[in-house]
Design brief:
Length: 124
């Protein structure tokens, strides 16, 4: 049984930092595309950052480039998202996804395994 579990969300002031973690089990982690997605109230879920199975290829949404860093530790079956210089507009539920197939942006395809999400709230 595949499990995807996010952690690390919380409340932070604008300009601050948070590090999200996503630990997986029940899959061969180093063969999976991994990604972070987010969904704000009233908006559609959007990809934030994604990484190929090898970890060598990454994608970032324009809104987070140069502020967020995605990384993976294949030995620990864990995905990370370092979020710096956080903005109020980064407030959302953040989801981790794992997919054995990927999109052109190295993001997990629609049939991916998803976690339950971790809330990130950025205040002024």
């Amino acid at each position: 049984q595949v499990q995807v579990v996010e952690s690390g969300g919380g409340v932070v002031q604008a300009g601050g930092s948070l590090r999200l973690s996503c630990i997986t089990s029940g899959l061969t982690f180093d063969l999976y595309y991994m990604g972070w997605f987010r969904q704000a109230p009233g908006k559609e879920r959007e990809p934030v950052a994604c990484v190929s199975a090898s970890g060598l290829l990454t994608y970032y949404a324009d809104s987070v480039k140069d502020r967020f860093t995605i990384s993976r530790d294949n030995a620990k079956n864990t995905l990370y998202l370092q979020m710096d210089s956080l903005k109020v507009e980064d407030t959302a539920m953040y989801y981790c996804a794992a997919g054995d197939t990927g999109t052109i942006n190295y993001c997990p395809a629609s049939s991916a395994h998803w976690g339950q999400g971790t809330q990130v709230t950025v205040s002024l």
